[in-house]
Amino acid sequence: MGSVTEQAAKDLLWYPPKHWCGAYFDIVGKNFTCENNFTESFNKWILAARAKPIIKMLEDIRIKVMGRLEDFEEEGEKWIENFCPYAMELYNDFKIIAQSCHVQANGGLGYEVVECTDRHVMSLASKRCTCRTWDLTGIPCPHAIKALEHGKQEP
Fold first, then answer.
1. Strand order in the sheet with 118-123
2. Where do the structural domains in the chain lie, given as residue ranges?
3. Is-contact 103 112, C-beta < 8 A?
4. Rounded to the nearest 5 degrees, what angle is found at the Cα of 139, between the Cα atoms of 133 and 145?
5. Fewer Cβ close by (within 10 Å): the C or N end of the chain?
6. Over the stretch 50-93, which tens digit does the pLDDT of each residue have?
7. CA-to-CA distance for 70 and 64, rounded, in angstroms?
8. Is 16 helix (H, G, I), strand (E, B) or coil?
9. Is residue 6 within a helix (H) or strand (E), and if so which, with residue range?
10. Using CA atoms, how far apart are residues 109 and 127, in angstroms rounded to an integer?
């Protein structure tokens, strides 16, 4: 059985990986091709370090990350608001989406918010929503914004 598997693996190598490697497939879009931008950009980012021994490669990556953190800190010092511009842009987009939501108080600080055909349960006490956007970004999701507005609170 092992020799059949080995022969199949050898035969597979005659075909380009984009035809058989799972990393190349985009099943959601039904294209069966992959646009793996994260992996490609990271590989390009560490291209020079990849040829080095592992310890030296990790040291190069550490230094590169330190430089990026310094760049982010310098960019953050230029902000004139308390929040980063991207967070404010996202928050403003969420406020627009919140206008199309409908809210129903659920008792205490709980709310049920309907967005189109989706229903989300919001808890202001724990700052959680079933859409999980607030958990993941730290920015109130459209459902939280609508619930806060319903409770006459400032998001």
1. 102-105, 110-115, 118-123, 128-129
2. 1-35, 85-150
3. yes
4. 85
5. N
6. 788 889 988 998 998 899 899 989 988 888 888 888 888 888 99
7. 10
8. coil
9. helix 2-12
10. 10
Q: How far is CA 24 from the centre of its chain?
A: 20
For helices 142-150 and 85-98, give the axis angle rounded to 10 degrees.
60
Structure letter (DSSP) for residue 131: T
- Three-state DSSP at 110 gives strand
Which of 117, 128, 122, 126 lies closest to 106 in space, CA to CA?
122
pLDDT 10s digits, 1-57? 455 566 666 665 666 665 555 555 555 555 444 455 556 667 777 778 878 888 998
Query: 149 φ, ψ to 5°?
Result: -65, -40
Name the amino acid, one letter, at 8. Answer: A
Query: Which DSSP letter does residue 116 get?
Result: T
Residue 80 φ then ψ, to 5°: -100, -15
